[in-house]
Amino acid sequence: MSWDPYAALGVSRSASADEIRSAYRKLAKELHPDVRPNDKAAEERFKRATSAFNLLGDPATKARFDRGEVDAEGNERQQTHAYRTGAGRTQNGYSGAGESVFDLGDIFSDLFGSAGATGGGARQPPFGKMRGRDIRLPMEVDFLEAIRGGRKRVQLSDGRTLDVAIPVGVTDGQVLRLKSQGGAGVQGGPPGDALVELKIRPHAFFKRDGDDIHLDLQISIVEALEGAKIQVPTASGSVALTIPEGSNTGKTLRLKGKGVGERGDQLVHLKVMMPEVLDEDLKRFIKKWGRRDYTPPRPPG
Description:
Blueprint: H1 5-9, H2 17-31, H3 40-56, H4 59-66, E1 83-85, E2 89-90, H5 104-112, E3 135-141, H6 143-148, E4 150-155, E5 161-166, E6 175-178, E7 194-200, E8 206-209, E9 212-220, H7 221-226, E10 228-232, E11 239-243, E12 252-255, E13 266-273, H8 280-288
Parallel strand pairs: 1-6, 3-7, 9-13
Antiparallel strand pairs: 2-5, 4-5, 6-7, 8-9, 10-11, 12-13
Helix pairs in contact: 2-3
């Protein structure tokens, strides 16, 4: 990290939201170019304090900085799971507003008023263009939506709604970056981005390991002994699976290309199940079975 935003504001890492806001107000009042015109050193300190406030004034971004996930500029430290995707503006839809944060315009208005010294126009900050802040939005995604991809709608705190493209095979905690959908820039600066953080809901019977999908499948004694062909679910629909004759619990069958985005496979783990109620015919058969002395392999002990 090339600089410390906490040091730029003169606060400790345990500073509260009110302390961060108060520290920035004090520095802005002291260093703003309207107060100290033609003072390049003060202007640079003011820019740095403003950048620090943009980072630490957003509770979600502050927490990510404290965890080392973003740097002092708010940039992702690791981009391995970041997908860039566009988003259209629509009406109505999914609720999931982002964090509420401090607004620079409100602070400048509080400190200097909304009008200039001469004329009635709104005062423009003279320190140059500044990029708007990024906003973070949580989004829950179903297990199968994560496997197949799709589209979901998310609502921002300012009332806008965005359609978000979910790429095939996204993972839990992955962040999708929506360019230019964040906070407005200052003095014509570019807007920030919207960062959509995904939470994948678990599935009732599928489990994921990388690009492979695992499924535990219960079969009957007859199916295990004689073999069978049965329908099993996959992420892309039901398929026929051949159970080999003499299958045991723990045997794994592989369905090629039925994993994530056809890159992985689906692994079906067989579990031979006894009937819940044993009938007399089965009991008599077991008593007459010629290999009653058979013992399956067991761990020593």
